[in-house]
Design brief:
Blueprint lengths: L6 H10 L1 E6 L3 H18 L1 H7 L8 H8 L1 H11 L3 E11 L7 E4 L2 H4 L1 E2 L3 E7 L10 E4 L10 E3 L11 E3 L8 E4 L5 E6 L4 E3 L8 E10 L3 E2 L5 E6 L8 E2 L9 H18 L9
Parallel strand pairs: 14-15
Antiparallel strand pairs: 1-10, 2-12, 2-14, 3-11, 4-13, 5-10, 5-12, 6-9, 6-11, 7-8
Helix pairs in contact: 2-3
């Protein structure tokens, strides 16, 4: 069964910069994915898990299957084109009743990916209702220029630099995007978005997949990616293979290298005086 977006949904993404909600997984499938993810956290322990859950698809077969799942990749290809790379896999997790939030920002500001044929699939592995602090999108903001962001490194801000967008937000254009467990949203790399704290007694677990068209390049470093659909005729990224052994030494080394490159891109300002 095709998972492609309808023509109306594609037009809505082009106009508003996002599409939500999209049903991907059943209740049973979602529960199993959450179990597998939390088993990884248990395996590595609280501190080591923080490193190893990023780009988890490079060390765990089940995560590799997720990033290639046609129910995710087909909608992505509808907005990016037939040839698609996965740039990274990350997680946005808000623990029960904590104060973690995500300030309004545009991903394009600091990812280093150009041109901006880049989209994020945000998949809820637990309830992401209004009380959990789901994402808020500023509709149509992807059609604007990228704004300046100030780095705050706020302790409760889940962003890597605690970056906060400059200028006012038109609250009349803000759309709340709650998701049920097993649903996903898609949003454009320039779309302004953020979220508030989780006020519930369960974890809010978001599996975040960043995809780009194969002609996109990384402007800051020689980066890595995984081909998930079509073919790559550009060679702008070092393409990585499927893990052969779960948490194997080769796989962990490959993941470590990918994370070093990505962190250097995301935190490029920290290296300017060293280059």
């Amino acid at each position: 069964m095709s998972a492609h977006l309808s023509a109306e949904a594609i037009r809505s993404f082009q106009k508003n910069g996002f599409c939500s909600p999209i049903r991907v997984y059943s209740e049973v499938e979602t529960a199993e994915l959450r179990r597998q993810f939390e088993a990884v956290e248990t395996y590595f322990g609280p501190e080591r898990a923080k490193r190893h859950i990023t780009d988890l698809h490079l060390i765990a077969d089940w995560a590799w299957r997720v990033v290639h799942d046609p129910r995710i990749v087909e909608p992505i290809s509808d907005v990016l084109g037939p040839n698609v790379l996965l740039w990274s896999l990350n997680w946005f997790i808000k623990e029960p009743l904590d104060q973690k939030f995500v300030s309004y920002h545009q991903d394009a500001t600091y990812w280093g990916l150009e041109p901006h044929d880049v989209a994020t699939a945000w998949i809820a592995l637990s309830d992401a209702s209004e009380a959990t602090g789901p994402m808020k999108f500023v509709s149509g903001s992807h059609l604007e220029e990228v704004r300046y962001h100030e780095d705050t490194f706020g302790k409760d801000n889940l962003l890597s630099r605690g970056q906060v967008i400059e200028g006012d937000i038109d609250e009349e254009k803000v759309v709340l995007s709650p998701l049920g467990a097993g649903e996903m949203s898609l949003h454009h790399v320039r779309l302004i978005h953020g979220s508030t704290p989780n006020q519930t007694t369960d974890r809010r677990i978001g599996m975040v997949l960043r995809y780009c068209a194969t002609h996109v390049r990384q402007t800051k470093v020689r980066d890595t990616a995984v081909l998930v659909r079509g073919e790559d005729r550009f060679g702008n990224f070092d393409l990585l293979p499927k893990p052969e052994k779960e948490f194997g030494e080769v796989e962990l080394a490959r993941q470590r290298d990918a994370l070093v490159r990505m962190q250097r891109a995301l935190h490029s300002k920290d290296y300017e005086d060293q280059d």
